[in-house]
From TrEMBL:
InterPro entries: NADH_UbQ_OxRdtase_su1/FPO. Pfam families: NADHdh. Keywords: Membrane, Transmembrane, Transmembrane helix. The chain crosses the membrane at residues 27-51, 106-129, 135-154, 214-234, 264-289, 301-319, 339-358. It is a multi-pass membrane protein. Its main location: membrane. The lineage of its organism: Archaea, Methanobacteriati, Methanobacteriota, Stenosarchaea group, Halobacteria. It comes from the Archaea. It is found in: Membrane. This is NAD(P)H-quinone oxidoreductase subunit 1.
């Protein structure tokens, strides 16, 4: 029997179809199973974001600053999660005079949608994979970039100078760092020869070095650590974490593009921040850390995948507490004059290595 891998695993909708015998319903059955699979994954992501936002973020920041954080709301303060959700959603939705509707209403939805939809092509292990198109990596980058559109719309439609400044900053920042991010990702494609996410993970399942009984996998973080560091830096800027959180910059522009949002709209904007952090961690894990690969049986793939995503989230919170914010002019200079040049240098170097040693 051939062991199941990410490349050979059955997509989650097909597994649900076989489990409930919906294959005979044709297109209707496919639509039902796709909806159920997407619903399950979206709810897992929302639960993770709920833990990360009201609870995890505060706990981590308190640990770094030697404080107790939340202690009074249930065990370990976990009841702050439903309490914060009820508090925010029960508040009045204040619509400032002069906002441009429906653009102002659509912007938070675009931000959340772009994050959740990006997970459609991410192989999470243990058979949890919605779709595996041949251009999966391109799809993930394209969908994730829609968040820039949402932030720009939010800033422009709010009829507020601070919100507009935040939207302009977000657009300038994402353009400056999205190019190095994609160019660095292209260096991985040179190794794999494919944009398909499952193929990228499958290539990394090979052994890079054998040290006695220890096998070091061919994760691209080990094969090309320079590209991994570049991708990490550009990813931090894409999700707007320190030292690159200038689109919000509370000490400068109140809250940036989200200044005029309240109640459920603020919840959507707030959730989108953490969902995009998870999406960035998922793409990084897939490209450089073997995706769901890890010790033990293949059934533990989803555990290792989530562990890598959570590790990236913890890293963003570490940076948030330990690194000062750069100025907007410094941020743009780092992107265009630093990371962009280094990413193209990495691409040329990778192309040379692949052409000489793997041709």
């Amino acid at each position: 029997m051939v062991p199941q891998t990410v490349a050979t695993a059955m997509p989650l909708p097909d597994a649900i179809s076989d489990l409930f015998g919906l294959g005979d319903l044709g297109l209707i059955g496919q639509a039902i199973t796709a909806f159920v699979a997407a619903f399950l994954i979206a709810n897992v992501l929302l639960v993770m974001a709920a833990f990360a936002g009201p609870w995890g973020k505060r706990k981590i920041f308190a640990d770094f600053s030697d404080r107790y954080a939340i202690t009074e709301h249930g065990p370990w303060g976990l009841f702050i999660i439903p309490a914060a959700a009820i508090q925010l959603m029960s508040k009045e939705l204040i619509v400032p005079k002069g906002v441009d509707r429906p653009a102002w209403d659509i912007a938070p939805i675009i931000m959340v949608f772009s994050a959740i939809f990006g997970f459609a092509v991410i192989p999470m292990g243990s058979g949890i994979h919605l779709a595996d198109p041949e251009v999966g990596l391109l799809f993930a980058f394209a969908i994730a970039s829609l968040s820039t559109l949402g932030m720009m719309i939010a800033g422009y439609a709010s009829d507020n100078k601070f919100a507009l400044m935040g939207g302009l900053r977000a657009t300038a920042q994402n353009i400056a760092y999205e190019i190095p991010l994609i160019v660095t990702g292209a260096s991985v494609i040179l190794y794999t020869g494919s944009l398909q996410m499952s193929e990228i993970v499958a290539v990394q399942a090979e052994t890079l070095v054998q040290l006695g009984p220890i096998s070091i996998p061919a994760w691209f973080a080990f094969v090309n650590p320079f590209a991994f560091v570049l991708f990490l830096a550009a990813g931090m800027a894409e999700v707007g974490r320190n030292p690159f959180d200038v689109p919000e910059a509370p000490t400068e522009i109140v809250a940036g593009y989200q200044t005029e949002y309240s109640s459920i709209y603020f919840v959507l904007v707030y959730l989108s921040e953490f969902l995009h952090i998870f999406l960035a961690g998922a793409i990084m894990a897939t490209l450089f850390l073997g995706g769901p690969a890890g010790p033990g049986p293949a059934a533990l793939g989803i555990v290792w995948f989530l562990a890598k995503v959570v590790a990236f989230f913890l890293l963003t919170q570490w940076f948030r507490t330990a690194m000062p914010r750069v100025r907007i002019d410094q941020l743009i200079e780092i992107g265009w004059k630093g990371l962009l040049v280094l990413s193209f240098a990495n691409l040329l170097l990778t192309a040379g290595i692949v052409g000489v040693f793997f041709a």
